[in-house]
Every structure is written in structure tokens, then in C-alpha cells.
């Protein structure tokens, strides 16, 4: 079973797009190697499926965060070793020696660079092995039981292999004879090829783990505790958007008894930001990554849907409103399949008139709230819907983002408050921007255009 999070949701929340400077992936993509970047993207795309996997990964990050290690390998070293190991090998030492002699002669007479590349590959591999042994010893100084212990022990097994002992006696810069070069090339790409590939893979894992844990420490992120599916719990303290430094934190709590938050507030008050913060935290917790909160506990869900920036589809002939309807239908179909989902609706049905939007938002919200196995965060400007819901239900949380007017200037606290917004400051903001004055001045200046 896989976690459901479609492209619309990932785009809404700004999670994966590596080309967006504000994407969550970009925030964590400070790895030192290309292999580390590939692994990081794979971890982002492949959501974990049970609480043990999530907690193990979180605990690994937490453990390395305490160590505050610096990844010792460069991108150039990792690329060179990967290219070298992937360039093929001979199955016998004599064949390896003959092939190297051929490369050297070809390089001398026709300028072929393959011999130079081979020397560089062997030298880099020796340097990486020595660095890795020093690095593993440093980790071993802080030895303790943690989820990455098995991988560290596997690294130690490879590095303690008697067949590799010859490496510790040689200096990489002295690999200048054909016979010695053939000896090491055969060792790395034939005898110990599987072990060298394993070591490279674990290098990339360490790159990601150290990078992510150091970013978490720098940004003040924490590690969520995952509970088994069916517990229907979400609790987060000081929840904020990971991309905003010094953001105002908020507390969110959902359960089977109170599974829907109805959110109101003025434009710019912070509704969309808290909704994205919630969705991002849910997703990141499900891949075992740090979350932008001081504390978080959650039960495993089957998927995450959002409807924040639903585009129209001119090619299909869909209006914005019809695109919204189709989005809500897709979510309803998933909910109807008894999936445990987290669902975020920002400004439902804003593509139609106020009366239809009121009726549709009220009906859809009431219907969704009956599915206790799902969590919902629904926002709207139509505060009258909230009043109607309060009359019919007693298990919906009503929260709003306040706007405080200081004279004619709005100030936003970005702090969730219980209740339904009574803010009516839209015209004040329009007046502050002088829009009406601009129109009136234009009408006076160009009466023939009016």
C-alpha cells in the first residue's frame, strides 16, 4: 500500500519541485554529492508506510544531529569513484594488467585519456576508503544503539576485510606503476566490486543524513513521533512553515472526535500559510524527516489531498469553478473508499457566486465531517457558513486568524484564535491603497472617457 499525494497536492504545498527556490526539497537539498541528491529525491518521493519505518528514520536523523558531524567527502571524489566503478572491469588479474598496458600505450601515442582516468579512479578510491575509515572511527567514538547501527557495522566489516588491508599501506599518489595499478584496479572492480558499491551507497546515505540533521538543528526543527494507523491523532506545538525563518508558531490538534478545523480570517492574515504548514508537516512526518514544530505526534494516514491553487483547464474547457468541483469530487471518491486521509481545502468554491459558494461549502463541509477517520482543514471567507455549522454540530473546531486595526492600518498576529472571524476590513485596505481616489482622479482628468 502506498501513500496518496498527487501532483496537485505536492504543487500546492511546494514540496518537491527542485527548480523552485521556495520548495521544501530545495531547503533540504544542501547535500554534497550527486548520489546524495538522487537519494534525497527518492526519499521525498517514496513515502514510508508504517510507523516503525518513520520513527527509525527520524531517530537516525536525531542521533546524527547530536553528533554534529561534517561530511568529509567532496562531490568530485564521489563522482570520480562512481564513474570509475561503473566503467567495467576484467575478471582476471592478467587480463586487467593487459588492458591497463593497452590504455597506457594508447594514451601515449594517440592522446587517449582513459589511462589517466583509470589512475585517477584508483587514487580517488584509495583516498575515499581512508577517509571513510577515519570517519567511521569518529562515529564509533559516540557508539550507541541507533537505527543506523547496522549500516555502520556493515561499513566496518567492509573496511576490516583482510583483502583491503593493502590499501592502508599505500599512498594514493604513489600508484604510478602499471603492476601496482592493475593490482588495485582488480581488487576494487573485481574482487571487492560489490563491497565498493555498498560503500558508495552508504556514503550517499551519510551525506543525506548528516545534511538533513544539521539543517534541522540550524532551523530549530524537531522529529515527529509516529503512531500506528487507526489511532486518529494529530498534535503539533509551535507549528510553522519550514521556509519562513522566525515564523509565528501555532498549535493544532485533531482527533476522531474533533476531526475538522473550520478556519476563517481576512486576506493576508495567514490562513494559507498555516494550511500549507499543516500539510507540509503531515507529509514530512510520513517520510520520517524533521518537521517545523517544537513537538509533533501523529497517526499514520493513507494520503494527503489539498485544494489550494486549483487552475482552470482551457484545453479541456473547464472553468475555474468546474475545476474546483472536479477536485472536490476526486477527494470525495477517495474518502468514500474508507481511506484515512488528511484533506486541506483553501477557500472552497471561490470560482462561483456567493450564494452557491455558501450552499456548497456548507453542504460539503458537513458531509466530510462525518468521516471520523479523516482529518480536514477547511478555510473560507464566507463566515456565515461557520455560523450555520455551529448550529448543527458540536465537534468542529472553529478557528480564525485575527486582524487588528491600528487606526486605518491592519496588523496581523498570525496566531490562531478560537471562534469565527468578524473582520470586515477589506474596504479599509482598498481605501489605504487609494484605489477609489485613482479612479476618481482619472474620471476627472479624462471626462470624455467616462
Automatic annotation (TrEMBL):
Q: Give the source's domain of life in one word.
A: Bacteria
Q: Does the keyword RNA-binding apply?
A: no
SMART domains per the UniProt record, alphabetical:
MUTSac (SM00534)
Query: DNA-binding among the record's keywords?
Result: yes
- Which keywords accompany this UniProt record? ATP-binding, DNA-binding, Nucleotide-binding
| Any Pfam family the entry gives | MutS_V
InterPro entries the record matches: DNA_mismatch_repair_MutS_C, DNA_mismatch_repair_MutS_sf, MutS, P-loop_NTPase
Q: Which residues form the DNA mismatch repair proteins mutS family domain?
A: 258-447
Q: Which residues form the signal peptide?
A: none
Q: What is this protein called?
A: DNA mismatch repair protein
Amino acid at each position: 500500500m502506498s501513500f496518496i499525494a498527487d501532483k496537485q497536492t505536492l504543487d500546492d504545498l511546494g514540496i518537491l519541485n527542485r527548480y523552485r527556490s521556495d520548495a521544501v526539497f530545495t531547503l533540504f537539498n544542501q547535500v554534497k554529492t550527486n548520489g546524495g541528491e538522487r537519494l534525497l529525491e527518492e526519499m521525498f518521493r517514496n513515502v514510508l508506510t508504517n510507523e516503525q519505518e518513520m520513527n527509525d528514520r527520524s531517530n537516525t536523523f536525531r542521533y546524527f544531529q547530536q553528533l554534529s558531524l561534517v561530511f568529509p567527502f567532496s562531490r568530485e571524489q564521489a563522482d570520480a569513484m562512481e564513474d570509475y566503478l561503473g566503467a567495467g572491469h576484467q575478471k582476471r588479474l592478467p587480463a586487467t594488467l593487459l588492458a591497463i598496458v593497452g590504455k597506457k600505450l594508447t594514451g601515449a601515442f594517440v592522446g587517449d585519456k582513459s589511462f589517466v582516468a583509470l589512475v585517477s579512479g584508483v587514487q580517488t578510491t584509495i583516498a575515499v576508503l581512508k577517509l571513510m575509515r577515519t570517519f567511521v572511527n569518529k562515529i564509533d567514538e559516540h557508539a550507541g544503539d541507533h537505527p543506523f547501527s547496522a549500516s555502520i557495522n556493515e561499513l566496518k566489516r567492509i573496511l576490516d576485510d583482510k583483502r583491503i588491508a593493502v590499501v592502508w599501506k599505500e599512498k594514493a599518489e604513489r600508484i604510478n606503476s602499471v603492476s601496482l595499478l592493475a593490482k588495485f584496479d582488480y581488487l576494487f572492480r573485481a574482487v571487492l566490486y560489490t563491497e565498493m558499491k555498498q560503500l558508495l551507497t552508504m556514503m550517499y546515505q551519510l551525506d543525506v543524513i548528516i545534511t538533513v540533521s544539521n539543517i534541522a538543528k540550524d532551523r530549530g526543527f524537531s522529529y515527529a513521533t509516529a503512531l500506528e494507523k487507526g489511532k486518529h491523532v494529530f498534535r503539533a506545538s509551535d507549528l510553522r512553515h519550514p521556509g519562513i525563518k522566525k515564523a509565528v508558531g501555532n498549535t493544532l490538534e485533531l482527533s476522531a472526535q474533533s476531526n475538522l478545523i473550520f478556519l476563517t480570517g481576512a486576506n493576508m492574515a495567514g490562513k494559507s500559510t498555516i494550511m500549507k504548514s499543516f500539510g507540509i508537516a503531515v507529509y514530512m512526518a510520513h517520510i520520517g524527516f524533521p518537521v517545523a514544530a517544537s513537538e509533533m505526534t501523529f497517526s499514520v494516514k493513507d494520503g494527503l489531498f489539498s485544494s489550494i491553487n486549483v487552475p482552470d483547464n482551457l484545453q479541456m474547457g473547464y472553468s475555474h469553478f468546474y475545476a474546483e468541483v472536479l477536485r472536490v469530487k476526486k477527494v470525495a471518491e477517495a474518502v468514500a473508499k474508507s481511506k484515512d486521509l488528511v484533506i486541506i481545502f483553501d477557500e472552497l468554491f471561490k470560482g462561483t457566486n456567493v450564494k452557491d459558494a455558501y450552499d456548497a461549502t456548507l453542504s460539503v463541509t458537513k458531509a466530510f465531517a462525518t468521516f471520523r477517520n479523516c482529518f480536514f482543514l477547511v478555510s473560507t471567507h464566507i463566515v456565515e457558513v461557520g455560523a450555520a455549522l455551529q448550529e448543527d454540530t458540536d465537534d468542529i473546531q472553529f478557528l480564525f486568524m485575527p486582524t487588528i486595526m491600528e487606526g486605518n492600518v491592519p496588523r496581523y498576529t498570525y496566531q490562531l484564535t478560537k471562534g469565527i472571524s468578524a473582520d470586515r476590513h477589506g474596504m479599509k485596505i482598498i481605501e489605504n491603497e487609494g484605489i477609489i481616489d485613482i479612479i476618481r482622479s482619472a474620471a476627472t482628468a479624462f471626462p470624455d472617457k467616462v
